[in-house]
Amino acid sequence: MAEKALTNTQANALAATTNATTGMTYPTANEDPWMAAYNRQLDQVNAVAVRGNDLRVYEVDGNADAIGVRPGRKAFANTVLIYAGADPAVDSLTDNDTTYIWLYNASGAATIGSAIDATGWPAVPHVKLAEVTMADGVITSILDRRGEGLSDILLPVYDDAGRPAAGYAGRMIFNSDDGHLNIDDGTNWTLPDGTTT
Length: 197
What we know:
Layout: H1 8-13, H2 34-52, E1 57-59, E2 67-69, E3 72-76, E4 79-83, E5 86-90, E6 97-106, E7 109-116, E8 127-135, E9 138-144, E10 157-158, E11 172-175, E12 180-184, E13 189-190
Parallel strand pairs: 10-11
Antiparallel strand pairs: 1-2, 2-5, 3-4, 6-7, 6-8, 8-9, 11-12, 12-13
């Protein structure tokens, strides 16, 4: 079912008004020069679209089995991850299968991960970006998953070597070496089974 569009009467009534949400002014029928009004609108649309383009997965031109990921920022627990973008970000997609694409925190670095659908999404905290389907050597669909937010509970991820010292009771982290939550009791890191490290 298609989204209902404005009628001609409703659209014409917008002439010379300003959209309260975007600040964009609608041109009049005899706007002169029309190109300047059009370019002003296009510039505002581009400014609004910047956030919508964050971490967007796209098909790479000239490389049938690769996807790129646009630059973007994502708050991930107590860290803001800044991804510079890559073209390609994932190369050699599996033909006749679906590949999951996600962003995760690799010791403070924004990193893109991928796996085929049989493997599934990772067990560590991550941000789902897309599901990319290839058939007969061609990308046939890119399902945008960014709107689904973050998986599970967002926690800082550390390995044993990079884990900070305990001392802030109540703080929790995900330990990528043992695959468990570590809870700071004020003195030690406590594992789910009650042992301390």
